[in-house]
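Please review the protein record below. Let me know how this chain folds according to its tokens.
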Amino acid sequence: MTARRVIFDGRVQGVGFRYTCKDVAKGFEVVGTVKNLPEGTVELEVMGEADEVEDFIKEIAEESPMAHNIRGMHVTNIPPLEGVTGFTIAG
């Protein structure tokens, strides 16, 4: 299992970005959460097989209806997500 945290920067709050992430997640074998952060960015935490996680992130960043809203993204490895089932919008 691979777990990643992605911070998306740009016009990512108030435009349906989190809902788009949740919708895209339906097409992948991943679990995780997505939430708005106070500084105007969006945090995605996702876990699954490495190729599923990478393809999921790529789909959001390059092919989703929100891709044009993303100005930048910072991806880091994180420890496995404990007790997370499904994909949810947090906060």
